[in-house]
């Protein structure tokens, strides 16, 4: 039975974006401070679960038509590919590369392959968590 909880639906629209942007911040801050792909992925999943609680699973699936199994597979390929790539250039497994670049609006910054690995972990965590939530939510 579905109840119409107007207050939860109204506030979840704002809280979703707060959690979303905090997840992005934690993801990017994770290379130098605590956080990264795993914690950012859990925060993103919690934002999506908030939408599922406020509305229902079918509505969230219509708004965000994402196949989370594919997201998990893409994340796993990205994480493993980033970790295994150095072996093909004569370096040990999990060796990360970085360089400094001058980016518009940001200035001089370092770009790391560790960020690609974290992106893979992020996608795996969101994909697996949301697959579990959808599987539980579809059972009657």
Explain what this protein looks like in three dimensions:
By secondary structure, the protein is mainly α. The chain has one domain. 69% of the residues lie in helices and 9% in strands. The protein has a two-stranded antiparallel sheet with strand order 1-2. The longest helix is centred in the C-terminal third of the chain and has 26 residues, at 113-138. The mean pLDDT is 89.
Spell out the blueprint of helices and strands.
Layout lengths: L5 H24 L7 H18 L2 H7 L4 H21 L9 E6 L3 E6 H26 L2
Antiparallel strand pairs: 1-2
Helix pairs in contact: 1-2, 2-5, 4-5
How would you describe this structure in keywords?
membrane, single chain, Monovalent cation/H+ antiporter subunit B, mainly alpha, transmembrane, two-stranded antiparallel ribbon, 140 residues, 9% strand
Summarize the structure.
By secondary structure, this protein is mainly alpha-helical. It has 5 helices and 2 strands; from the N terminus they run ααααββα. The chain has helices at 6-29, 37-54, 57-63, 68-88, 113-138, and strands at 98-103, 107-112.
One letter per element, helices H and strands E, the order comes to HHHHEEH
| Order of strands, widest sheet | 1-2
Structural class: mainly alpha
Alpha carbon gyration radius: 18 Å
Q: Please indicate the percent range of residues in DSSP E strands (runs of 2 or more).
A: 5-15%
What's the N-to-C terminus distance?
11 Å
Count up the domains: 1
Estimate the global geometry from the Cα principal axes. globular
Q: Would you tell me the overall average pLDDT?
A: 89
Largest sheet: 2 strands, antiparallel
| Separate helix tally | 5
